[in-house]
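Tutorial, part two.
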Amino acid sequence: MASPSPRSSSFATTSRTPLRPSKVTIDDSCQTEADNTQEQEKQKRKLSQKQKTLSLCQSSIVGHLSPWPTYTSGQTILHNRKPCSDYCRKRAGSWRQQPLGITKPRYLEQLENYLRKELLLLDLSTDSAQELRLQPYREIFDFFIEDFKTYKPLLSSIKNAYEVMLAHQREKIRALEPLKAKLVTVNEECNERILAMRAEERSEISLLKKEKMNLLKLVDKKNEEKISLQSEVTKLRKNLAEEYLRYLSERDARKILIADLNELRYQREDMSLAQSPGVWGEDPVKLTLALKMTRQDLARTQMELNTMKANFGDVVPRRDFEMQEKTNKDLQEQLDSLRDDYEEVRKEHEILLQLHMSTVKERDQFYSELQEIQRTSTPRPNWTKCESVVAGGPDRWHMLAEGKNSDQLVDVLLEEIGEMLLQEKDFFPGLGYGESVPPFLRVDGVVENKKPTKKDVVNLLKDAWKERLAEEQFSSTLQKEKFSDFFFSFLERRFGPADAMAWAYTVFENIKLFHSNEIMSQFYAVLMEKMSESVYVKHKETISQLLKEMTNADSQNEGLLTMEQFSTVLRSIFPFKKEEKIQELMEAAGWQLSSNADWLSYQSLFTEDEEGQVTPFMRMLWEQYVEEKDEYLQELKQDLGLELYEKVTLPKVREALMTIDPSLDKQTLNSYLSQAFQLPLTELPEESEEKEEDIMIKLQTVLERLQMIDIRRRGPREQEPTS
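Running the prediction step on this input gives:
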């Protein structure tokens, strides 16, 4: 046999002698690897098949036969490097001389060592462990293909077929992976649905069981009732039969009795006819006929009597009807009288309630004053000491102190002291740019004190009001500018942008100091948004209307009014003021101090001095307005029946306002609600659209917002009934 080439795996045969069973070629090791997994009892059959295969392939094999037996157990494992096929061919000669039971071939050991090392190096903990485990076997198969050139096409086709099949299987697995996940999801959803359905069915079954038990109890109850009713029916039937028999026997007895009575009557009539001497002269036929006609008349009369009883059995006699009608009329008159008495008592009760409320309020006020006096009671100060301190001397102090109590005198003294200190200041410290600082006072550093007189400040405020009212009159359709912004703009127009801030600080400090001055205090309240502009405007309109009515009442144009005319004008302008309030205004007008008690110079009531000090009458008008507003809001609070910290809804406030003031028109009511809940008029809900879950605001906030605007009574608390 020829020796193999150094790098070729194809062999050429020189003889066709059959191979011995104990020897196989090197190329047959590939066949033995496929047969190692077979069982031992089939080894002989495999050996015979391998001998036939070797004999058929002998013509194409050149080399030595391997002595390694085909039935030896073990795995063909490659080394970590590619085995040399030349080395295997060199060892082929020695393999042929070795017996069957010798050790493994060197080439097979290298393959096993290679496969073992490769498998040990693999990380089999990953998901692709099987793919990695297949890679060493693929490499060994590639080595076989490269070393055995003769079988390379066949082995390559086998490998490609397996690779194609593996790729196809991988694609199918990839395609089935989403279906698997979807299947798991669907399975979980189905399980959840099944569990939910089972839970629902269990609840339904429990409910049905309960219903079944209730129905069974109801059936038992109905059966018991049926049994009791059946027994009662049986008893009633028995009683009915007894009554029927009794009535039947009574009917028969009555018929017999009637027949006996008729017979006796007929006998009596015959006897009477027989005894009377004139009867024998009558015709018996005529008498019989008369008797028959009489009986018919009796039957007809009896029938008419029964009909009248049936028709008029329920009719009341006219005498009884007239008697009952008279009794009813008397009771109705008593009811009307009682109703009138009740209305009078109710009105008296309401009047007493109002009187009680006013009395309680006066009592609380007196008690608080008493507590204040007890707390702060000190020896009465000697106010004459202030004459030398106040600028202007005793005359000015007497003018300032006229008609004022100690508390008011303290305010006057504080204002005088504050005025002197204010005149001594040359600069005001800037308040900065904080959010709590009004916009017209936001500046850093120091601001110059312009040191105006009180007269100058009052005139400046009057000019500001005139310009504000004129601006509102000419630009009523435009959006209204905030009063604080208007005030600063007015100062810029009046004194220029450079001095506007200085005048703003100067005016602000002055109006903050003089609380007793009505013009300054009202301007300060509007500027600090404690009072609405409408309050000032409405108050001025009321004063103008009052002066106009007094002028109209003065027919002689002498500027004088009588007490009756003055009182009539006050009642016409203020129809809802109480009598004591009207009396206070008349006393403030100076009736008791006038030299002529019959006439009053009304024009002097509406004057004011150069520093803005108004007359006692004007001051009393403003004080009564403030008191009436407080009383109105107090009535609203009492009608709501809530504490200040409790919350109230818009429907509740609407209902309370309509209760305490039924004469409120819709527009005025909506303006009150808009201010209280800070809602535009267009967004206020109608009464039919109001719900309980509307916006809720603290009662204290509602009262504070209403305190800012011009809110007053529009009519009596309850409308008088019309006759």
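The longest helix spans residues 152-275. In part three we will examine how such features are distributed along the chain.
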